Amino acid sequence: MAGSTDDMLEPFLPPEENGALPTAPKSFKTRSRNDKVRIADIASGSDIDVTTSSAVMQGGTIGTTRAYIAVAVMVYINLLNYMDRFTLAGVLIDIQAFYGISNSNAGLLQTSFILSYMVLAPLFGYLGDRYNRKLIMAAGILFWAGTTLAGSFIPKEYFGLFLAMRALVGIGEASYSTIAPTIIADMFTKDKRTTMLTFFYVDTPVGSGLGFIVGTNVAKLLGAWQWALRVTPILGVVAVILILLFVPNPPRGEADGGDTKLTNTSFLTDLKALCKNGSFMLDTAGFTCVSFVTGALALWAPSFFAYASTDGHKPTKELQANIALIFGGITCAAGVIGTVAGAEWGKRWKRTEPAADPLVCAIGMLGCTPFLFFALLLAKSNIIATYILVLIGEIFLCLNWTLVADIVLYVVIPTRRSTAEAVQIVLCHLLGDAGSPYLIGIVSDAIAKGHDNYIIKYQSLKYALLINTFVCVIGGAFFLWCTFFIVRDRARADRITRGEESEHSDLDNSLVLPVDPLDCYLNETDTDTLVDGNPRT
Fold first, then answer.
1. Mean pLDDT throughout 300-319?
2. Do residues 410 and 45 touch, judged by C-beta distance below 8 A?
3. Contacts of residue 49, Cβ cutoff 8 Å, sequence gap at least 6
4. Which pLDDT tens digit goes with each residue over 143-164?
5. What does the pLDDT look like over 343-371, one tens digit per residue?
6. What is the DSSP track for 222-265?
7. How far is CA 404 from the centre of its chain?
């Protein structure tokens, strides 16, 4: 009963603050430098020489069936999350006409949402590492549904109020996005965790595509763009009920086989540890570039293709609906193919290459670049070829969705994971999709120089969107850099989680580029005894 009481009281227990640092158990033991198989297993995530039972690896004390149901609920909510976020893009031309706003102001709709989402993420990250996660998620989603619905009733004289309501939507979504992946991480581990995260993150492109399709077609069917914003709030209320009924709040670190109860350090200590974690910082830098590109394309691509399909006239509602259907279908298909392929490629390649995850991410970013470049150049002359190029480019771009999240979850200890998710959200949105839609709008307006001709709008958007190709190359470079740190950081997080080192030991991490990641891991294991009791060789 003691364990049950602790679990019930967990949301109300304060984190450890200051005072004496916890001491790592004396049972910390290491392997030989010559034990290459063991080192490769640790690096690839296939290590099975731990005290973790199969029950822990698939649901833990929660139970396997309940864990799968909880993942299904969170997949459903993540789908709604991205549907709501990109519904706006499907009806953007109608919103611009309704409120009488320019491309720059239209870009602010996405930017305001991302800014609030970004600013509140650290608060929910802090709460998610310390208090009851399912209750935080339920409250956040209810708030998100309410603000989305309220925004659909704002009259055309009050664009500023509509902008404010879209910003408030980000508060609700921040509560969910920082916490849900950590619950999955505490129910599953290793390849099973990667599989569950694949289901979760495939919603990013699929939900985005459905947002275009549902938003445009609901608006067309009911005769007003406002109805596009009233679909997801109803489904959001259902999501709140499902969370309260089926989603657990599992013990932090259970799935990773921690043999001691991890304690929380101060928020500043958490931030310092994350900033010194090379894998986390470079993974975040690479994902910032991904966010920049996806944010810009999500908002502007439907309008760009609509302009490309006209002879200088305003695109009709029917044309907008058809393009939203095509672009949404491409995004959904690319999302499913790319996300699943990236996760599976990473799992298989890790058996021989410990740094496979960031390598796949790098290939995805660099591979996307030429297809995106030629898609923008050919849009006016050959729209079919453009759609094919966009499909292939988005498949490359989606290779990294699961792997980026998986990297965070295995290089950061369980009691810092929500904070890590929050920090990643802040950085990737602050420097990524918070500004990219607005930047594209500003550059486009500057090139058009006030001309209202839709051919000029097409040309100006084309040149503005070419910025994304350079960002893809920069993102690929960050992921390649991450490969030099990934083995060291994963091994250290693994030791801390199992009680072999203190929660403060990762403050000794260095951002100096390691010469050999495996040597870096071995040099950190400085005891004289092996796990099997034999002396070190």
1. 78
2. yes
3. 38, 41, 531
4. 888 888 888 888 888 888 988 8
5. 899 988 988 888 999 999 999 999 999 99
6. HTSGGGGGGSHHHHHHHHHHHHHHH---PPTTGGGT-SS-----
7. 7
- Tell me if 27 sits within 8 A of 500, measured CB to CB: yes
The shares of helix, strand and coil residues in the chain, as percent rounded to the nearest 5, are: 75, 0, 25
Where residue 426 falls among pLDDT bands split at 50, 70, 90?
A: confident
Q: What is the CA radius of gyration of the chain?
A: 24
Question: How many angstroms from the chain centroid is the CA of residue 439?
Answer: 22
Q: How far is 91 from 323, CA to CA, in rounded Å?
A: 11
Nearest Cα residue to 399 out of 207, 210, 201: 201
Provide the token pair at 9. Answer: 């009281």
CA nearest neighbour of 439 among 298, 305, 292: 292
In this structure, what token pair is assigned to residue 234?
């109803």
- CA nearest 184: which of 76, 71, 79, 343? 71
Other beta carbons less than 10 A from residue 5's beta carbon = 9
Q: How far is CA 396 from CA 290, 340, 370, in A?
A: 11, 11, 11
**Residue 16 gets which letter from DSSP?**
P
Supply 147's token pair: 């603000």
Pick the most confident of 180-184, 211-215, 222-226, 235-239.
235-239
Contact 304, 458 (CB under 8 A): yes
Is the model's pLDDT at 279 over the cut of 80?
yes
Q: Which two tokens stand for residue 85?
A: 């976020």
Closest to 412 measured CA to CA, from 477, 493, 349, 513 = 493
DSSP H or E run through 524: helix 517-524
Amino acid, res. 169: V
Query: Of the candidates 201, 209, 216, 219, which has an alpha carbon nearest to the alpha carbon of residue 329?
Result: 209
DSSP for residue 432: I
SS3 at position 434: coil
Where do we find the tokens 């009709």? 316
Is 80 exceeded by the pLDDT of residue 439?
A: yes
Beta bridge partners of 529: 535
Lowest mean pLDDT segment, chosen from 244-253, 256-265, 376-385:
256-265
